[in-house]
Amino acid sequence: MLCLCYWGTDFLLLLTNMAALRRSIACLNFFRSTAASVLNSRKPLRHRLVRLRDVTRTSLVSLSVGSGLSAVPFMQQVENLSHESLIRSASSMVTDSANTYLSQTTQALVDSITQYSKALHTLISLQRRYLASLEKLSTAEEDAIWQVIIAQRVEVGDRLDECNRFESNWINAVNLCEMAAEAAYNTGAEHASVTAKTNLQVAKIQVEEVRQISVDAERKLTETQAEEIQRMAEYAFIESGSDDVHEAYLRED
Questions:
Q1: Whether 219 contacts 234, CB under 8 Å
Q2: What is the rounded distance in angstroms from the CA atom of residue 76 to the CA atom of residue 74?
Q3: Which Pfam families does the record match to this protein (predicted)?
Q4: How confident is the model at residue 72, as a pLDDT?
């Protein structure tokens, strides 16, 4: 068994030496063919060496020139990173954030006022329908309608609270946007300042338009409530008689 191991080791060593010998012969043949092609060329070897030197020099010059051109914008960028430019860039970013905050709060306020106006119109419609059928309703029907009216009044109050909450956020956004626009103008970021002021004008116009709608709805609700009081007084007069109503009026005085 020991002899077989030694024989196996010698055999592997022999194979390794043969592979190395084949690689050496292949390299020798390659050098011979290369030398022959150089000697048989039309141009002398000296010309080839000169040509190689010129090509190398051209490549080095191109590389140095290209590196220099690439370095010019980089140096300009480094020089532009002054305190003024950094502050101007920071103020522009603050203005962008303020514009986003203003846009979101404006949309929330507009939607909340719109929903509040819709709730007002629904309440107005319910009260007018109640007044129109006041003399035709039974006691149970009248109680059912009043439950719906009371629930709608609660809805109106909730919508109004939501409007007040979003309006507070919107006012903060307006103040922030105004300060950001002034800061951008003072740092030289005129474009950011103009954009912020334009967004402020648009936001104020949008809010004013929906506010006018809600004001009109509130006015109509007030008129409907006044009409309701008058109709209820007339209905009470018809039910109890004019004398009883007159005596009750005198007792209240």
A1: no
A2: 5
A3: Smac_DIABLO (PF09057)
A4: 42
Distance from the first to the final alpha carbon of the chain: 136
Query: Would you tell me how many other CB atoms lie within 10 Å of the CB of residue 156?
Result: 19
Query: Residue 75 carries which side chain, given as an amino acid letter?
Result: M
DSSP letters spanning 124-177 = HHHHHHHHHTGGG--HHHHHHHHHHHHHHHHHHHHHHHHHHHHHHHHHHHHHHH
Structure token pair of residue 76: 């300009």
Structure tokens at 116: 């509040």
pLDDT in tens, 151-203: 999 999 999 999 999 999 999 999 999 999 999 999 999 999 999 999 999 99
Q: Which is nearest to 114 in space by CA: 19, 216, 250, 10?
A: 216
Structure tokens at 236: 């009470």
Torsion sign, CA atoms 212, 215, 221, 223:
negative
Distance between CA atoms of residues 101 and 181, nearest Å = 13
Neighbours of 184 (CB within 10 A): 27
**CB 196 within 8 Å of CB 96:** no
Which has the closest alpha carbon to 149: 176, 166, 168, 129? 129
Query: What b/e readout covers 72-88, taking b as 16+ CB neighbours within 10 angstroms?
Result: eeeeeeeeeeeeeeeeb
Which pTM value belongs to this model? 0.61
- Rounded Cα–Cα distance for residues 155 and 125 (Å): 14
- For the record, the structure tokens of 112 come out as 């909340």
